[in-house]
Amino acid sequence: MPKFTYRGHTYDYTIRRSARKTLGIYVHPDLRIEVRAPHNATLEDIEERVRKRRSWIVRQWREFTLYHPLRQPPVYQNGATHLYLGRQYRLRILEGPRNGVKLKGGYLEVTHHPASTAERALTAWYRERADEWFPRLLEEVYPRFRSFSIPKPKVIHKRMEKRWGSCKVSEQRILLNTELIQGPKVGIEYVIAHELAHLIHPHHTPAFYAVLDRVMPEWREWKGRLEGVMA
Predict the structure, then answer these.
(1) β-strands 14-18, 33-38: how paired?
(2) To the nearest whole number, what is the mean pLDDT of the chain?
(3) I need a surface site. Which of 4, 67, 72, 116 has the fewest CB within 10 A?
(4) Starting from the edge strand earliest in sequence, which strands make up the sheet with 14-18, in order?
């Protein structure tokens, strides 16, 4: 598999040839780097194009790493640490007549029915908090985009393995990973802003990042805080 090196790190990429006339480079959400080339493009041509585009490729690749939660699987036992809105809480697990979760000091007090589990109770509670917080944070971020005259999308959420968020331009909706509710509010706001910017520019072009810089100059810091907490 062909490779290139940038600032001490090596990246693999694949080459797919077709009847196309131009050479294109694509970084996919699953972190695959793909070069689509005409049949008559030489390997030297491809390597030279990749070399010239290394910084752009790596920037896109690093952007997509945000959408790849790599944390260890959570542990559901007394004293285990779990996150909520960027803060760490310890679990206090109880049995009771119904499932429920309460915040008490530095603890998440998780009560579950004998026929259920602490994991089910806590997962349901996270979904409820996401239902509450994600639309509220959209209301806080959306006014920053007023000058772009984009319609306010609907925000929904579900658990996703490889993404923090996505948007459906045709449906005017934003999909967030339910697990974002564990991150800091500013990190969630960054992901919402990221997806709103995609309603203006679908791809990670310089124009896309110019929108982010304009509406949220601190987005790099907020992105870093999200990555620091959720890594």
Answers:
(1) parallel
(2) 89
(3) 72
(4) 14-18, 33-38, 24-27
